[in-house]
Each structure stands twice: as C-alpha cells, then as structure tokens.
Amino acid sequence: MTTAEPEFLTATRTFYDAIAADYADRYRDALAAMPWDRALLGAFAELVTTAGGGPVAELGCGPGRITGHLAALGLDVSGLDLSRRMVELARAAHPEIPFAVGSLLDLPYGDGELAGIVAWYSIIHTPAEQLPRVFDEFHRVLAPGAPLLLAFQVGDDALRLERPFGRPVTLDFRRGRPERIEALAGAAGLKVTTRLVREPEPDERTPQAYLLAHRTV
C-alpha cells in the first residue's frame, strides 16, 4: 500500500511550482549583494576542498543559483529540490550540474556518500515534529567529519505568505531559534562549530541565522 505524502510536502511543491519562474528572475543575482552569504559559502567550499573534496549537495536548491556558485568555487556539486519546475529551471540555467527532484525526508544518497551539504533556507517549510527526521537524514548521508551549512530566519512564529508575485498560492515560512536548531543537529550527531546571526537587511523582516556543523567522527 502506498503511503500518502505529508500535506506540507504537497503544499510546498505546489507553491514553488507556481512561483518558480518569478522567483528565479527576482533572485538570480541576489548573491552579488550578500557578502556574508558569499563568505560563508566560500568557507564551506574551502573546508570541503582541504578535506580532500568529494560530492556535495545543495538540498532545496530552487533554480540553482547557490548550486551554481558552489560549482564556480570548484566543488563537485549537485542540487535537489522538491519542486519539479524549480529543477527544470536549474537544469536550464546550469546544464553542467546534475539536479534531481526529491525530499529532505528521504534523501537519494547512500550512507556517508556526501562530502558536504548546503541547506540554504530549505528547512523552513518543515514542521517542527518532522525536523528530527530531516537532521537524521543529513547525518546519514554525510561522511564522517563532513560539513553541513544551514541558513534560516530567526524567530518563533511562522510567516504565512499569500499570493506571492500575484500567484494563487499560500505557504508558511517557519522561523527558528539558533539554539533550537543547534540542539536538533546535536541530537542527530552533528556538532555545530560556527554560529552567525546578522541583523535584517532593509527588505528582510527578521534576523538571519547561519550554522556550520560537522558529522561527528
């Protein structure tokens, strides 16, 4: 018997399929104005490279703008996203990079296969009760000592975004406290080694958090 897909996955896929082209157009060059983001992604790339390299995945890659940046930094990177339309756009923009459709709840990688993971604002649609499973999956697919880089909005509540770009869809964006996300990582065997919280930019509503963790050896 086939198990029904969790409702939040269906809602997230529907939302991003609907706004994929608008989202890609709006944020295509956003990284150029984000020095902290570039610095952290650069540090992640250096950690992977100095450890000997290997396959890296951006999970929740959207149209592939971060994936493309990681490839430009010399990483052997692939992308995974729940939205089929986002993956189509990512493949068109970066034909040299492999992209696939998939969920954070069931990652399509073998145990210890990855030399690093970037999850850039991709845990923010997962309900709290499902996050331990997501972090367990991160731990499972990472090689011992390999890094995980997370980005998310800081807060205790959820933002309900309705009709973005005029599209008839709605989705909850779940914020998190760095200490709570760090505890989830720790419970899954991922040790946080770097924490950064920056104040919001003029077009942002909340502070932004970044955590760098490593699978314990």
From TrEMBL:
<dbReference type="GO" id="GO:0032259">
    <property type="term" value="P:methylation"/>
</dbReference>
<dbReference type="Pfam" id="PF13649">
    <property type="entry name" value="Methyltransf_25"/>
</dbReference>
<dbReference type="InterPro" id="IPR041698">
    <property type="entry name" value="Methyltransf_25"/>
</dbReference>
<keyword id="KW-0489">Methyltransferase</keyword>
<dbReference type="GO" id="GO:0008168">
    <property type="term" value="F:methyltransferase activity"/>
</dbReference>
<dbReference type="InterPro" id="IPR029063">
    <property type="entry name" value="SAM-dependent_MTases_sf"/>
</dbReference>
<protein>
    <submittedName>
        <fullName>Class I SAM-dependent methyltransferase</fullName>
    </submittedName>
</protein>
<keyword id="KW-0808">Transferase</keyword>
<feature type="domain" description="Methyltransferase">
    <location>
        <begin position="56"/>
        <end position="145"/>
    </location>
</feature>
